Amino acid sequence: MKSNIWQSKGAALLMVLCTALFVLSASIAMPILCRPFFYLQIGPLGLEAETGLVKEEIMQAYAEMLNFCMGLSKEFSTGVLPWSEQGHAHFVDVRRLFLLDFGVAGTSGFILLIDCFMRRRNSLPPHSLKGRSAGFWAGCGLLIVFGLIAGLAALDFGRAFTIFHSIFFPGKTNWIFSPEKDAVITILPEAFFRNCAILIVLLMVASCLLLIGRDIYRRRKQEPPHSEK
Q1: What value does the CA radius of gyration of the chain take, rounded to a whole number of Å?
Q2: pTM above 0.85?
Q3: CA dist 137 to 96, 118, 151, 188, Å?
Q4: Is 52 exposed, middle or buried (0-12, 13-18, 19+ CB in 10 A)?
Q5: pLDDT digits (tens, 9 = 90+) for 2-34
């Protein structure tokens, strides 16, 4: 009975969904969790000259802002930079999205681990849909969907940035910061968000190609050798 459940089409579809969600959410989480990704851009983006702050002050402002958005701090602050209640409200929304992403990554990753454990314990073959693995279908789906999105964003990142905020912050305009009231925006230029988007896309593409390549390798390995006539 157990092996029938784990080998069912429903279980395979669940693994496709979980794999896609894990790749997507983990890729999004990387530029958030990897703070050196921002710190290494302080010089190239000319943030010290633009803001009049020294590198340590920029790093502190970013760290305090990120601590709040990641749920590591209950109090919102941006170092020596001023902020308004409207700006604070936007980062409360950002915090919800970050925690949602972490939750999706953790939940989908946990389900994938449980599935892997159960399949090894019961010596079950990998999930298969039309002869392909769950990872193959998840990788193909993500490549198609986000390939189109990345292509559109590359044509006009500014417009894509605006559309993104209108989708994830519907009916709100508090994400449009005034540098005088919410100076943290001066250390978060559009170029930084563009670099984050590039990193996320690269991580997703690499993960998808790895999943697809693994499936192709497994299928070729399982093919019987051609008999010589």
Answers
A1: 22
A2: yes
A3: 29, 21, 21, 36
A4: exposed
A5: 456 666 778 889 999 999 999 999 999 999 999
